[in-house]
């Protein structure tokens, strides 16, 4: 720990205070008899210092990093009318009231995790913005820099593997929307909400906190639309939720890091569920 030295100017006494721990030790030795003014000024100093520390040295999780302004000319990926440019199980995906609606039921089940895939491009360095809402019976996701598994080994025609921005309708960390999941891979939950982290030497190394549990509960809009921004440039990925940075990840393992791939939206196997997406737009971040 680094001690702070603070200078106090007074009309009668001008002196530079020693570190607080040393000052307290000094007072204990002298009991204020030889230098009674020290006791008075020490009390004032420590009181002021407590207020100063309380207002100026707050945790990083209490200092939100805000999303950048939306760049001009973002490309819309959904026309709001039909699923032109997208490919998914027609039993499960449709357009309702100008939004992409995915739903599984006891009668129309997903045979394994299934996706609706954007067919008109590949994501490299990009900024993606969209809004989502879903129910809480299951989870969904936004796949990016991913690959379509169509080699005959998948359970259905719309299986995708790669980076996934988790979609959930829950408030309690860590099972919330926004973490990076390695869909179909071996790394599981690569980076959790609130973490500033790297992946290197075969493991995650966390070196900062962006939001805590209480902050996320205030930020997330339960049972309502939530706004997502995903920015990926090189091996650096950032997830923003409702205007705030919630995850900052650098994938330093070149053997597993993904630098390009497709975009897709998920319906999860298992319990019946629904998920909806709107205002899907993207911009190229490959330029300086």
Outline the structure in words.
- By secondary structure, the chain is mainly beta.
- It folds into two domains: 7-57, no CATH class; 63-284, Sandwich (Jelly Rolls), CATH 2.60.120.
- The protein has helices at residues 20-30, 36-56, 213-219, and strands spanning 7-9, 14-16, 75-76, 86-87, 93-96, 99-104, 114-118, 126-134, 140-149, 159-167, 180-183, 189-191, 195-200, 203-209, 226-233, 236-241, 244-251, 262-267, 273-284.
- Strand 16 (236-241) and strand 17 form a beta hairpin.
- Helix 1 (20-30) runs antiparallel to helix 2 (36-56).
- The model is unreliable at 1-35 and 49-58 (pLDDT under 50).
CATH topology category name of the largest domain: Jelly Rolls
The fourth-level CATH homologous superfamily of the largest domain is Exo-inulinase, domain 1
| Second CATH tier, the architecture of the largest domain | Sandwich
* Element-by-element helix/strand order: EEHHEEEEEEEEEEEEHEEEEE
Measured on Cα atoms, how large is the radius of gyration?
A: 26 Å
Structural class: mainly beta
CATH class of the largest domain: Mainly Beta
Helix percent band: 10-25%
Q: From the structure provided, what is the oligomeric state, counting identical versus distinct chains?
A: single chain
Question: How would you state the average pLDDT, rounded?
Answer: 86
Query: How many E strands?
Result: 19
Distance from first to last alpha carbon = 39 Å
Number of helices: 3
| Portion in strands | 35-45%
List keywords for this structure.
single chain; 288 residues; mainly beta; Jelly Rolls; 2 domains; ten-stranded mixed sheet; seven-stranded antiparallel sheet; 3 helices; 19 strands; globular; disordered N terminus
